[in-house]
Amino acid sequence: MSPLQTDRLPTEQRVLVVGPFGRDAHLAVQSLQRTGFDACAIASIDLLAEEIRSGVGAILVVADALDLQFMQRLSDCMAAQPTWSDIPIIVITTKAKARSRVAKPSFEEIGNVGNVTFLSQPISVQTVVGVVRLALRSRSRQYAMRELIQQLDEKIEDLTRSNSEFQAFAYTVAHDMREPIRMIESYLSLVSDRFGMVLGPTGTRFVADAGSVAARMRTLLQALLAYAHVGNNALLATPVSLKSVATAAINNLSEAIACSSGNVVISGDDCVIQGDEALLIQLFQNLIGNGLKFQKPGATPYVEVRWVVDDNQWTCSVRDNGIGIPSEAQEQVFAIFKRLHAVSEYPGCGIGLATCRRIVDRHGGRIWVESEVDVGSTFHCSIPLRLPSIDPTAAPTTTGETAGSAVF
Ligand code: ADP
After folding, report:
1. Measured between alpha carbons, how far is 193 from 74 in angstroms, rounded to an integer?
2. The whole model's pTM is what?
3. Of the residues 260, 264, 290, 341, which should be mutated to test ligand 1's pocket, given the most ligand atoms within 8 Å of the CB?
4. DSSP-derived 3-state class of residue 268
5. Are 357 and 334 spatial neighbours (Cβ–Cβ below 8 Å)?
6. For 169-216, how does the pLDDT look when each residue is reduced to its tens digit (9 = 90+)?
7. Nearest alpha carbon, ligand 1 atom 3
8. Residue whose CA lies nearest to ligand 1 atom number 11
9. CA 42 to centroid of ligand 1, rounded, Å
């Protein structure tokens, strides 16, 4: 056990001493061992490389032992270390002229190897011990960090697994429930067709109510399927015209626009970005649809869609003149099933914005809302121009030129 009293593996607190054999190196090893460190002398770069692979706390090098070839191997070993690891290297330099003819690396070259501290001779044993102790402390913190990273990776893996299990479950339930709902709806319609005369007003109302519940259930299952679809399926990224996806969304909403006598306008020049066209249409459709729906009674909806593109990302905004969202609910509305109103007031099932967030997440972007109650809301989405897993040479264009599609 090292003088640091850690509960780490012994190798993680080991000090490897590399020097011209044997006075300097053996003296250093003995001094460190006397102070309680786990120190050992290393006779060759091959051995050092092997020891580094099995775990090391710090490396103490007497500069005379370094030649260019040794330096290169040491540098390779350091470069091969995982990102959390930055092995402390303490180099003891001497002003005495080099006795050998072998070419020696400069201090700068040695310093470039990594986490290097230089100590110039003459130095006291206490100084060496102090510096080694500090180096081992920093190494302990690196190992602690490695454990945290491992724990975090395991948690991410668990979460990803349970998330995809949940998605598969939600998809299966939503999919398998569609058939029974269809059966209920068709039996209700048979009852009302064949027995309408004998049902009387109360019976007819019950059947109609049951029909509305079944229809709501069907809508909910469709929304759930759409939500699960965004998470389950590969993103098919192609060059996409923002104007054409916004226009397609508006066309899909023509009935809602006509019913509400609303106005939807698109501002801004067209721009071609990389994205999944079907999902982007769904994103615009959900946001514009909400802008038309969440209105004060009797108001004429006005929804404006605009976007700006800079070097790194495109940001679209969907602004409406609706009822607005109180500031304390502006983050919550993106959670699945979160609704601020009764279905009787505003129809819906609370999945639309959660789906939007998922679509934006899948594109590596973010979504947020700015809103004022009784004035209106503006939903913003910003999405990187270069999607994370896409070949950077397949860059976005401002014309309609075709580039390859990428699935990820
Ligand atoms: P749904 O529209 O089915 O209720 P969403 O997930 O699309 O579900 O929206 C969640 C909630 O966020 C809505 O129920 C509503 O309370 C609020 N909301 C969404 N969009 C707007 C908007 N444009 N204006 C005001 N409130 C909104």
Report:
1. 86
2. 0.67
3. 290
4. coil
5. yes
6. 888 888 898 899 999 999 999 999 999 889 999 999 999 999 999 998
7. 348
8. 339
9. 68
